[in-house]
């Protein structure tokens, strides 16, 4: 609205009440004490204002951007916030075209209403231009946490880190992992939309450090990082041939001997075979009776070289069992390259009795090593013949190390 229009409205109003209302509207648009507006030759003069204003958030600072049309008389501008209590001032460089404004300055944390005013060499000021922006600091930082590791997988050549999901509203961006390989420091970046990090070519235990990076807003000029977490990843062997379809090393009809497992003669009660069962999808099955001999101290197990730490060997998926108090079937872990007999089961690192009434989730053994040791894990059982027979049928075993 120009000065001529203002005078015409006042002249035609004919009512002091309307004049006061109109003046009130003008005053509500600006602060007369803060912004200099004066009349010359009956006209109100404003300096040109900055357009297309945007405030980009940052870490205890913001970035002010905008555009100013060429005006050789404009000398400087000020940006106010905190109810005009705080401000910064910048001079204007002379330009023949549109001037792009970009200024970054410190602002205390919080959502702020920013007001920008330009000034010309005659002392005129522009109408105020308001924009809202946010400065982030300790209050935001307190909400941030490092991404959590859920588990590890190991191949013959690589370490695979599996990550937990995170709250995306925190502005999480990626996780940075630092480790050393062949004497060289390596950095691996894993975006938040990826749930695995692969340390390619690393197949031995290793120390890593990792941290997660955050950006409070998509357009923020700064990122936030949580402190590094130090972690040692202990690489341990995987169980071989541990789930259906189980593979056999050799077979004779329905029954066979498990590939990758050690099976003693006592467990091979089906004409020299035992442990592998073609029925029900090639399962792990120890069966006696129904025309087959009883089993006494039958053993089937795997032997591994393990570093110090805590480990668990478990039945991940039990198909079925009818072993009871009349039988002596155990899941067991023991030092060395063999399992103890059932009468010496207390010599093991840990054991659990296999009973049909036992919750399948309790079929696990957990043990702790204080030094690198050879450990055997598997099943030892003594079970009767007759009809109905006795059996212990498994779809999958699990084995893992408890990472610190």
Structure in words:
The protein is mainly beta and 404 residues long. It folds into 3 domains: 31-137, Immunoglobulin-like; 143-233, Immunoglobulins (Immunoglobulin-like, Sandwich), CATH 2.60.40; 248-402, Sandwich (Jelly Rolls), CATH 2.60.120.260. 8% of the residues lie in helices and 49% in strands. The chain contains 4 helices and 29 strands. The chain has helices spanning 3-13, 16-29, 138-141, 279-282; strands spanning 39-40, 43-44, 51-59, 61-68, 74-81, 86-91, 99-106, 110-120, 129-136, 149-154, 159-163, 172-181, 184-191, 196-199, 206-214, 224-225, 229-233, 248-252, 255-258, 262-263, 275-277, 283-288, 295-306, 309-321, 328-335, 350-353, 364-369, 373-383, 390-402. The strands form 6 sheets. The chain has a 7-stranded mixed beta sheet. Strands 18-19-21-22-29-24-27 form a 7-stranded antiparallel beta sheet. Strands 12, 13, 15, 16 and 17 form a 5-stranded antiparallel beta sheet that branches. A hairpin with a 1-residue loop joins strand 3 (51-59) and strand 4 (61-68). The longest helix has 14 residues, at 16-29. It is rod-shaped. Mean pLDDT is 90; it is low at 1-41.
């Amino acid at each position: 609205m120009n000065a001529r229009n203002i005078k015409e409205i006042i002249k035609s109003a004919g009512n002091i009440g309307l004049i006061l209302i109109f003046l009130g509207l003008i005053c509500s648009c600006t602060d007369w004490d803060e912004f200099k507006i004066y009349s010359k030759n009956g006209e109100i003069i404003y300096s040109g204002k900055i357009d297309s204003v945007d405030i980009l958030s940052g870490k205890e600072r913001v970035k002010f951007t905008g555009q100013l049309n060429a005006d050789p008389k404009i000398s400087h501008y000020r940006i106010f916030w905190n109810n005009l209590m705080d401000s910064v001032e910048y001079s204007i460089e002379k330009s023949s075209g549109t001037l792009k404004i970009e200024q970054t300055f410190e602002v205390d944390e919080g959502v702020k209403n920013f007001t920008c005013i330009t000034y010309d060499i005659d002392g005129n000021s522009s109408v105020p231009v308001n924009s809202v922006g946010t400065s982030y600091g300790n209050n935001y930082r307190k909400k941030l946490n490092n991404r959590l590791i859920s588990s590890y997988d190991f191949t013959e050549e690589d370490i695979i880190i599996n990550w937990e999901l995170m709250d995306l509203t925190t502005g999480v961006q990626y996780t940075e992992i630092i480790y050393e390989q062949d004497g060289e420091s390596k950095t691996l970046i894993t975006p938040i939309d990826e749930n695995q990090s692969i340390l390619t070519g690393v197949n031995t235990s290793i120390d890593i450090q990792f941290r997660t990076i955050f950006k409070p807003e998509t357009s923020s000029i700064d990122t936030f990082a949580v402190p590094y977490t130090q972690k040692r990843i202990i690489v341990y062997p995987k169980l071989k041939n541990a789930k259906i379809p189980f593979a056999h090393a050799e077979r004779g009809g329905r029954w066979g001997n498990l590939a990758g497992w050690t099976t003693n003669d006592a467990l091979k009660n089906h004409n020299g075979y035992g442990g592998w069962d073609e029925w029900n999808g090639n399962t792990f099955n120890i069966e006696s009776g129904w025309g087959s001999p009883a089993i006494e101290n039958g053993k089937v197990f795997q032997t591994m070289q393990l570093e110090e730490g805590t480990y668990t060997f478990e039945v991940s998926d039990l198909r079925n069992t009818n072993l009871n108090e009349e039988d002596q079937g155990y899941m067991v872990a023991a030092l060395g390259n063999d399992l103890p007999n059932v009468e010496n089961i207390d010599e093991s690192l840990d054991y659990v009795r296999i009973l049909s009434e036992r919750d399948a989730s309790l079929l696990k053994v957990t043990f702790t090593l204080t030094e690198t040791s050879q450990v055997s894990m598997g099943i030892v059982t003594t079970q009767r013949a007759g009809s109905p027979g006795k059996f212990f049928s498994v779809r999958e075993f699990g084995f893992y190390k408890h990472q610190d």
